[in-house]
Specification:
Blueprint: E1 4-8, H1 11-18, H2 23-34, E2 38-42, H3 46-54, E3 58-62, E4 71-76, E5 82-86, H4 95-98, H5 111-122, E6 136-139, H6 155-165, E7 171-174, H7 183-192, E8 198-200, H8 205-211, E9 214-217, H9 222-228, E10 233-235, H10 254-263, H11 268-277, E11 281-282, H12 288-298
Parallel strand pairs: 1-2, 1-3, 3-4, 6-7, 6-9, 7-8, 9-10
Antiparallel strand pairs: 4-5, 5-11
Helix pairs in contact: 5-11
Length: 305
């Protein structure tokens, strides 16, 4: 009986995979086909998820939906063109969240060129002028009126902590451009604007990152773009990129976290190389299939057996 790799995706992405237009899926397909697997594409309905949990095939879901030992999620890493495979779990509790960053293992002459390459790829030379600098940037996420289980503080408590720890600095809130905020969420923002030195700006996040002193967020990936500008950050939630950033889990953590962020003692260049080059697959490079096999092995997928 032939073994199968089955991709699961919504209609538009399913069409891309079937037509060979998804670079990462193409690489996965070639790896599995070389081991004797047939490759096909299916949906993401309830029945598809149950089959993925119960049958003997391997299943890869686009973004989310994986369930069971023989299913993984394929996702773009925090910066493109890097891709990763995650077990059936949330990103903040996934494979990268549990890895240990050891800067002594990251060295050689490749770190600086890689950092500069990513800066050229992501930092625009024509960003709009913010008109100020040295503020705390707070990239807002979704569901502002709720404190979800993976968040160590509400948005209100997080901004109040900034005010207490850095009372003279301006705080800029940046709403997420893809979030549809509810009336309750807008009420939270209105309440935050009553705090000292707090403003809302709708400028592009890249421009706001470039001129800020540091970033404070629950776990917005804007922190990762900040690495390219060498901007320190503080997190107030579980994250898969927590390794070099202080995380405030309770009020007692705040003084040390803000002291660290002001000292800027974060290994930006080594961390970027470790996170992306050493732990994700760059689909532009010849070593991408080997990186994919490493991720499959980490998930316990012995596809050659």
């Amino acid at each position: 009986m032939q073994k199968h790799l089955i991709f699961h995706a919504a209609a538009e992405m399913r069409s891309h995979i079937e037509r060979g237009l998804h670079g990462f899926a193409n690489m996965l397909s070639r790896i599995f086909e070389a081991e004797g697997y047939a490759v096909r594409v299916a949906g993401i309905g309830r029945a598809d998820i149950w089959r993925a949990k119960l049958d003997r095939n391997y299943h890869i879901f686009d973004m989310d939906g994986a369930s069971g030992r023989r299913a993984l999620n394929m996702r773009p890493s925090v910066l493109q063109p890097f891709w990763t495979l995650e077990r059936p779990d949330s990103r903040y509790n996934g494979r990268m969240a549990h890895k240990v960053f050891d800067p002594s293992t990251v060295g050689g002459g490749l770190v600086t060129p890689f950092f500069e390459e990513m800066q050229k790829l992501y930092i625009s030379p024509n960003m709009p002028d913010v008109g100020m600098k040295g503020y705390v940037l707070v990239p807002l996420q979704g569901q502002l009126s709720k404190q979800r289980h993976w968040q160590y503080a509400s948005v209100q408590s997080m901004v109040e902590t900034i005010c207490a720890q850095d009372p003279r600095r301006k705080i800029i809130l940046k709403p997420h451009p893809k979030e549809a905020y509810s009336a309750e969420d807008h009420a939270v923002i209105a309440k935050l604007l009553l705090l000292p030195n707090v403003e809302v700006l709708e400028l592009p996040i890249e421009a706001l990152i470039a001129k800020c002193a540091y970033i404070v967020t629950q776990n917005s990936t804007a922190v990762f773009e900040g690495i390219l500008h060498r901007k320190p950050a503080i997190l107030f939630a579980k994250s898969d990129f927590h390794h070099i950033f202080p995380t405030v889990k309770s009020a007692t953590d705040a003084p040390e976290a803000f002291a660290r962020v002001k000292a800027k003692d974060m290994l930006f260049m080594k961390y970027l190389y470790w996170y992306l080059r050493m732990n994700a697959a760059d689909i532009r490079r010849a070593d991408a299939p080997a990186k994919i096999r490493e991720m499959l092995a980490e998930a316990g997928w012995n596809i050659g057996l």
